[in-house]
Amino acid sequence: MKICSASHTRVDSFDTIENKIVAGERMVWTVTEQDWWNIGKAIGYFFLNPLFWAALIAAVGLGYFRVKRERKHFNIRLLPGLTEWRRIVSESWLPALVLSIVVSGVGLTVDRGWLVLFMGISLVALILFYYQAMSPIYFAAIAVLAIYAMQFDASRFALYGWNPDQVDLSGPLAVTVAIIAGLLLLAEGYLVRRFAVRYSSPLLEPTNRGLQAAAFKVKRLWLLPIVFLVPGDMLSAYMPYWPQMTLGAATFSFVPSPVLIGFSQIARTTYPEILFPKIGRAIMMTGAVVTVIGIGAIWMPILGWAALLVGVICRITISIMTALKERKGVYVTSPRSAGVMIAGVLPESPGERLGLVPGECIRAVNGIHVTNEKELYDAIQVNAAHCRLQVIGRDGEVRLMQQVLYRHDHHRLGLLVVQ
């Protein structure tokens, strides 16, 4: 199979890796001192990528708007404004490392035009702030469709030696793109399942009865520094300064690229710690299916594009079904006449030490029944040094709790409440 008709060496590079994948042969890297220098240069180019800096700026913006919303609704913020910025890579480096090792170790080479389109589409979604559509399966599929559309008038899109006509969409690219997209879906599901619930930010919404209930919104952005492999002669002829390495008789370029994964969801009728891990598991199952079908494309390339189609349909279905479900039904955190409903708990506050969680209702403080935030605050002052609470749990059971309050503690136990 050919990916390009313009260079025989390029075809050999791609076919060598594909044959090794099919035959299960072990590939051995030959790394010289110059190669290590080239790896360092490639890492430097990663930090020059505009997508990297745009992602950092967007993460700062996420924190700013979250804090602004929390202060508007509750007069206090739940987490510091730079939380999203600080954790944009710290939470995603492990899946990024695993994906880089798999992609490089197996030899999943990609077309440079597809990679540029993939990152360009990511940048557009980032600028539009539309994180519901920032799943990598969408970027991978749209990039393929863009190349297919370009081939109808290839001369208009030729740039720096790359031409859409050079890309054989029925060749090895169908295998590599499908497998990489499936692996990225697995990474997305892992991140949503593991970390999304940590950033659930409460907000107030009007109910049908004219009251205000709390919903929980998550808007997250993860940056995965992933190393892609591009056949060396695809870049060397037009970008001779780009670092290259050798694999047997073939030459390849490491291209460290920022891959963005965005997630946005509002939980209304389900608690965040139940809903978000469930979404993450569904995304991971979709990624596993896409990866398996993509591996089957080694023998039948059309399965690669079928895998992308399955991934897109399943990912859209997950988003739509979740949104429809959360728009119907009763808010799990709505006002109660029997007490004060908790919408959020500040980290390292007395409320957190008491084990209070959103969705629980404080019925009495220091023996005094409370129905709103002012009564809650006044009752705490009755015995400010030793606070005793009567709490109705999510399951409807009543339990008694007590906590010693210190001078530096939050004067309202560090609770965000619905009233």
List the helices and strands and how they pair.
Blueprint: H1 8-23, E1 29-30, H2 33-46, H3 50-74, H4 83-86, H5 93-106, H6 112-127, H7 136-150, H8 172-195, E2 201-206, E3 212-231, H9 232-236, E4 245-247, E5 250-267, H10 272-296, H11 302-327, E6 340-345, H12 350-353, E7 361-365, E8 368-369, H13 373-380, E9 386-392, E10 398-404, E11 415-418
Antiparallel strand pairs: 1-4, 2-3, 3-5, 4-5, 6-7, 6-11, 7-8, 7-9, 9-10
Helix pairs in contact: 3-6, 5-8, 6-7, 7-11, 8-10, 8-11, 10-11
Explain what this protein looks like in three dimensions.
With 419 residues, this protein is of the alpha+beta class. It has 2 domains: 320 residues, no CATH class; 79 residues, Roll (Pdz3 Domain), CATH 2.30.42.10. Strands 6, 7, 8, 9, 10 and 11 form a 6-stranded antiparallel sheet that branches. A 5-stranded antiparallel sheet has the order 1-4-5-3-2, sandwiched between helices. Helix 3 packs parallel to helix 6. The longest helix has 26 residues. It starts with 7 loop residues before the first helix and ends with a strand. The N terminus is likely disordered.
In short:
It is built from 13 helices and 11 strands.
Radius of gyration: 26 Å
Number of strands: 11
Major β-sheet, in short? 6 strands, antiparallel
Portion in beta strands: 15-25%
First-to-last CA distance: 66 Å
Describe the global form.
elongated
